[in-house]
Design goal:
heterodimer, A: 261 residues, mainly alpha, 76% helix, B: alpha/beta, Rossmann fold, Coagulation Factor XIII, Chain A, domain 1, six-stranded mixed beta sheet, globular
């Protein structure tokens, strides 16, 4: 609770730092906006090519749309978590020289990646409309769930970011561990393949917190239906657990950060 | 994989003090003594492992100027972000924006990315933002020496102004002159422990004595830490060394002694009262016990309210010692001492170039200036009134106006010329030896 009050008090700071991050990132690059989309589009292109032309494993109509619906939230998650591991040490000057709420740093990372995600949404929706016109998909009211999913996912990502940003200061190897976990994570999350039929496999995959999110986005975009109740419950559960853990860990470590950096 | 260092050295221990609202407090000590750690603890950047720190009011910490600047974005945007970091709201920054820009002098570079700034501009912008936060407590760590001469002077002036407005200042610096000039009290820490706290001139001197390896740590230092800690933070006390002290304070290592300090008129008579604008000389009889190479003589004239009217020394005026041995006399000759009526005190000192005192005599002399003109202030510039055109004035006899009894008589004689009728205001002071 303490944590939330601190964050509320520093909302202007968090907003200002987020816009600073975005401005700094796009300044001096003509294709700024394009670059934030480039990575998911590249993944999209490669996997579409591989799984529709070289190894046509998934006999799915509008496979690129399916892929796109899973890749965007994954990119948001993986990029934000990865970057937040270094968010505190790369701002050592602030922590050591200015009276500064350290929890703002991972959150700024999460928020600026959320902005990238939001900016990519129109492209996703355009793809949905395009495949609908080709009669390979259908726009339904389930799409309205998109903001809700994004909100819940942001809470989840913020919790993870708070945990990894603070612990990686005391435990430097964490950064490398996270990098590898995220690479594995991409394949144990149903992004390039649909959630399997087998109950046991499904259950196993759902132990991965990103599974219900990926499945949820695919449901509302690709399948045009509401996410499964199981997934919705899991999303809320994972998000709540993550943010509580994030605040707890951060609170325990905050006082040692300025010394440990 | 280890989460805590195997050995830890406490950076500070047994340091307790209270700083009153509006006080200027200096922290001195060698490198690594824990000065900056102390400042970071006050600012809340670091948390104490044990002990307690209580701060009331808004803090601005000048620990590293421009610490929050992002090189890729413009000065304008950085002002906003830095201001928000220092606790201002967007609206507050908008209202101060022009003042910040003007103070920083970045001018046309305002809308350029900060990475294009020179290091001086960078620091200036950082300072400008920080001092416009209007803090209740300003923490300053070694930053007053940044930038060019002009900006440095501007910073010092700004800090004086803030002090005047009642901002509490806490300094960490190696520039001991600044501590002496700006601070009301000083704390000397050594290896994380407080050695002395109290009057800045004396604490600085004790520190210099210790650093130069000579004398043992301060014996006669009036205020020690233990006494100080007993005093709880209460209502703002009067300034610790405001000039109510009537006793002379004297300290120093004693290689050179100021045997006698006197204020004399043109005829060599000692004075304790004088009229405004009279010629006077401060005479200092000196006795050198151990021959010295590095000698600076200084005098200071202070108003009763503690304001320094004037202070100088031989080094500042480009005088280099050629000989200092045996006994001798140093005279500080003033063709006219243009002061407004009031009481004043004189400090005289002999010390090394870096300020280590051989003999420092604070308040060695007290004198009053009388005047038949009831003007106010401290300094009376030589002046005249001129009236032209439709405006005309005529002078009346000031002597018939209400001037306190015996003084009037004295002034009458002394303002005209130092005359032999004055002797009843001459007075011999008993000169005590250390």
């Amino acid at each position: 609770m303490n944590e939330l009050r601190t964050l509320y008090r520093h909302r202007q700071l968090i907003a200002a730092l987020t816009s600073r991050d975005l401005k700094a990132r796009y300044r001096g690059s003509i294709l700024g906006y394009f670059w934030s989309l480039a990575n998911p589009l590249l993944l999209l292109g490669v996997y579409t090519l591989v799984f529709t032309k070289f190894f046509p494993r998934f006999d799915m109509p509008a496979y690129p749309l399916f892929l796109f619906a899973g890749i965007l939230p994954w990119t948001f998650f993986s990029a934000a978590v990865l970057e937040s591991t270094g968010s505190i040490s790369s701002n050592a000057g602030l922590i050591k020289k200015v009276m500064f709420p350290a929890e703002a740093l991972p959150l700024v990372v999460v928020l600026s990646h959320l902005v990238h995600f939001v900016l990519a949404v129109p492209v996703l929706l355009a793809a949905l409309v395009g495949f609908t016109l080709m009669k390979q998909a259908a726009v339904t009211s389930a799409v309205l769930m998109l903001p809700v999913l994004m909100l819940v996912q942001t809470v989840f990502v913020a919790g993870v970011a708070m945990v990894v940003s603070s612990t990686s200061i005391l435990f430097r190897d964490l950064r490398d561990i996270i990098t590898n976990l995220i690479q594995i994570g991409f394949f144990v999350t149903p992004i390039i393949y649909p959630l399997p039929e087998s109950f046991w496999l499904r259950t196993l995959l759902r132990l991965n917190p990103m599974t219900p999110f990926a499945a949820g986005y695919q449901d509302i975009i690709y399948y045009g239906r509401m996410p499964a109740i199981t997934d919705m419950v899991l999303m809320l559960g994972y998000a709540a657990a993550s943010i509580v853990a994030g605040m707890f860990v951060f609170d325990r470590l905050r006082d040692t950060l300025a010394e440990a950096i | 994989m280890k989460f805590s260092p195997e050995t830890s050295v406490p950076a500070l221990r047994n340091v307790s003090f209270a700083i009153e609202r509006g006080e200027a407090f200096g922290i001195i000590g060698r490198n690594g003594s824990g000065k900056s750690t102390l400042l970071k603890l006050i600012s809340g950047i670091l948390k104490p492992t044990s002990g307690r720190i209580v701060v009331a009011g808004r803090i601005a910490a000048l620990i590293e100027l421009g610490a929050g600047f992002h090189p890729e974005i413009t000065g304008r945007e950085n002002i906003y972000i830095n201001g928000i970091m220092l606790g201002l709201t967007r609206r507050e920054i908008e209202s101060r924006f022009d003042r910040i820009v003007e103070f920083s002098g970045v001018g046309e570079f305002l809308d350029q990315p900060v990475k294009t700034y020179s290091s001086g501009m960078y620091v200036r912008l950082g300072f400008a933002v920080a001092v416009h936060v209007d803090p209740d407590l300003l923490l300053i760590d070694e930053v007053l020496s940044v930038g060019d001469e002009e900006f440095s002077a501007k910073c010092i002036a700004k800090i004086h102004e803030m002090k005047h407005r009642g901002v509490t200042l806490v300094f960490v610096t190696h520039q001991l002159d600044q501590v002496r000039e700006l601070c009301d009290r000083a704390l000397w820490i050594e290896k994380g422990e407080a050695v002395a706290i109290g009057d800045p001139v004396r604490v600085v001197d004790a520190y210099l004595q210790a650093v130069s390896g000579g004398a043992p740590p301060p014996g006669p230092l009036g205020v020690t830490l233990s006494e100080e800690t007993v005093q709880a933070p209460g209502p703002p006390a009067e300034k610790p060394e405001s000039d109510t002290l009537l006793e002379e304070e004297r300290w120093g290592s004693g290689e050179i002694l100021l045997k006698r300090v006197a204020l004399v008129d043109a005829a060599g008579r000692e004075l304790v009262a004088l009229g405004a604008g009279t010629p006077v000389t401060i005479e200092i009889d000196v006795e050198v016990h151990t021959k010295q190479e590095d000698v600076v003589f200084g005098v200071g004239i202070f108003h009763a309210d503690g304001t320094c009217v004037y202070g100088t020394n031989t080094e500042r005026e480009g005088l280099v010692v050629e000989r200092a041995e045996g006994t001798g006399r140093v005279s500080f000759v003033m063709p006219s001492l243009d002061l407004v009526a009031g009481s004043f005190r004189i400090d005289a000192a002999v010390h090394t170039k870096n300020g280590r005192a051989f003999d420092y005599r604070r308040g060695v002399l007290r004198f009053v200036v009388g005047s038949r003109i009831h003007d106010t202030g401290i300094y009376r510039p030589k002046h005249d009134w001129k009236f032209e055109g439709g405006i005309a004035f005529r002078a009346v006899d000031m002597l018939n106006r209400n001037v306190p009894g015996p003084m009037a008589e004295y002034i009458r004689s002394s303002e005209a010329e130092p005359s032999p009728e004055a002797p009843k205001y001459r007075k011999r002071r008993k000169l005590e030896e250390p």
